Amino acid sequence: MFASPSDGGHFHTPNPLAEENRLAKDAHLPCPLSENEQDEAALLATPVERVGPCPTDPFNPFIAPSHKDVVKDDIGHLKARLADHALAVCRYYLSCGQRAGNYWTVGNVHNAPGHSMFVRLYTDASGGKAGRWRDAATGEYGDLFDIIGLNLGLRSFADIVDEAHRFIGNRPSSKRPRPRADQQPRFDRTDHARKLLHIAGPITNTLGETYLNHRCIDSSVAAELRFVSSCYCRPTAESDVSEWPAIIAPVTDLAGTLMAVHRIYLDTAPPNDISLGKAPISRPKRSLGHLNGHAVRFGPDKDIVLVGEGIENVLSVRTVFPSVTVHAAVTAGNLGDYQINPAIRRLLIAGDADDAGRRAVSKLTARAATLAIPVTTLWPLMSDYNLDLCQMGVAIVRERILAQIGPLTDPSSLASL
To answer: What digits encode the pLDDT tens for the residues 198-218?
Structure first.
């Protein structure tokens, strides 16, 4: 866009991000940019001085160097510096959380205790970038700039930049050299998961089977689960490594390739109503590898599949309906990202009755709609189907599920259950 006489010889460089955002608002569509990204786009779309015509083309202006490129480079460098120190950022602004492998977990961006929010600490081979975060309970997500702004209640993007500069201060540019794109990762988590699954044995006649029985689950419908009598675990980043018995569940993609394992650490003491048999450590359920929408799969491929969040949740349904194929996404966030097989005829979702569970069901239902796959959501009477099964028994759970699935499913579908 060229200058007009009325604007004093200046023109504004069109900003494609701001334009996309304006068009989305005009069309009443969801805004593609976060508030911070809009502020950043506005900051970069500053007036640039026109200094004269191009010698070879009088219709194209020369653009004098401005602070625009400097600002853009500075923001990009600042974000990279923050990503290099993602762990320090989390410890400072989200001090109520704790490290869990490659993530920092906390209740929310306002530093409440809990585990629903995950911040990636290091860029890994799967393409996940350091500093990216998601709150499974609210669906919010963003980067470290968003954490700083939301945590401190900063409404101006310039204030967030100033605070980020203050935090970085004289910290070194990087704690460790950035790996080249063609460089192998420090270690392959999937390879470690494969080795762990290889040394694990059948779950029959083990503490793992005792755990399932205590959760009212028939172990005969969980043949895919494995067990190790001693599995390493570091409860917190500051604690020593300990060893616990663990159930090992293979997480596979649509082709059946192993992508991760999910571990349920168990207590050697008799189960009680508080621990339910899980080890007395922070987060006794942990994954090793790359979830990325993959799942723990029980039963052969069928044209009707039931998917849910927890292993105990979906196995409770399979205890009632042993012939149904069930998949466990193991986390609420991963349930929303669950990779749907486009060849299936119907998707059943065993939802968890909490905010994170409802949000995951809503996201997955919307994704299934884009594939024209019918969805039936099965809601428990209590928080999940395992609690229903243990508190109410098989007959009531069966009646509850059939009441929800019956009116929406043809007789052949019911027969498959």
So the answer is: 999 999 999 999 999 999 999
